[in-house]
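User: I'm preparing a small set of examples for a lab meeting where we compare how different chains pack in three dimensions. I only have the primary sequence for this one, and I'd like the structure in token form so I can line it up with the others. Please keep the answer compact; I'll paste it straight into my notes.
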Amino acid sequence: QVQLAESGGRWVQPGDSLRLSCAASGRGFHPSGMAWFRQAPGKEREFVARITWIDGVSNYGKSVVGRVTVSRDRDRNMLYLDIWKAQPDDTAVYYCGQRTTVTSPFGSWGQGTQVTVAS
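Assistant: Understood. Below is the structure token output for the 119-residue chain.
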């Protein structure tokens, strides 16, 4: 069973940058794609970014396009999210997920990592 573990979340000031990481482990890790979602207090989970595992094609949510970059390291089974010039609205718990086909929903969520952007 595949397990995902997010890390890298921390408190940052507006305008700072940070990198989130997601480590995949377990048997049968052969994703079609992986994604980052986030959930702020009192809000629904929001799509942030996704990337196809083989080709590295990425897509971004409207609220973050131009300010985040998703990448992956296939050799290390790692997924990353670089947040540039963080804003208070980026404050949320960030989750990574995987999907096994291009049409299946993302799942196998980790425990999440907290990002707080505040002065």
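A couple of notes for your slides: The radius of gyration is 13 Å. The chain has a mean pLDDT of 96.

User: Perfect, thanks.
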